[in-house]
Structure formats: structure tokens, C-alpha cells
Amino acid sequence: MYEMIEKATYHQDLSAKEKETIANFYTYATIGLFMKWLRDGMKEEPKEIIKQMKLLFQFNPKEVIHNHRNENA
User: Fold this and answer.
1) Closest alpha carbon to 35 in 55, 52, 18
2) Which listed site, 13, 20, 30, 45, has its alpha carbon 20 to 30 Å from 36?
3) Mean pLDDT of 48-54
């Protein structure tokens, strides 16, 4: 996941800590959705879980960084 964030934020001036935080967010969100699906007895089709994960990844890390920096300015 960290490598994906590295590529997505190539032109951004981010610290390693900021990149790690973003990577951790996406990692835990993905694992959380998968674990919830397992805990709920895998009643939904895998295709539906993948659809939810795609929605999660539609959020652009660059926008997250931009918003974070504007809030802390």
C-alpha cells in the first residue's frame, strides 16, 4: 500500500510519516471491510465487497493531503 501512496503522491511534498498515515488508513479500511464481510458470514457476493472497496479507493490521496494541509494551515 505504501508504494501505491508513493506513486499517487509523487509530486507532493510529504513527509514519510504523512505517507505512512495515508497508507495505514487505506490498509486498515480494506482489511476492515473484508473482516466485516467474514464476520457477517460472507452473505454478500464477493463482487459486492469488491464494489465497496472500489468506492473506498475512489477517494484520491492527493485530495486527502490537500484537505489535511488546508485544515492545519
Assistant:
1) 52
2) 20
3) 85
All cell numbers assigned to 20: 505512512
The residue with cell 477517494 is 59
Cα atoms found within 13 Å of the Cα of residue 22, Cβ hemisphere only? 25
Compute the distance between CA of residue 56 and CA of residue 7 in angstroms, rounded to an integer. Answer: 18
Please state, for a pLDDT cut of 70, what percent of the chain lies above it: 84
Grid coordinates given for 52: 465497496
pTM of the model: 0.65
For the chain, the domain total comes to 1
Structural domain containing residue 42: 2-71
Instruction: Kindly state the average pLDDT of the residues 18-45.
Output: 90
Grid coordinates representing 34 are 473484508
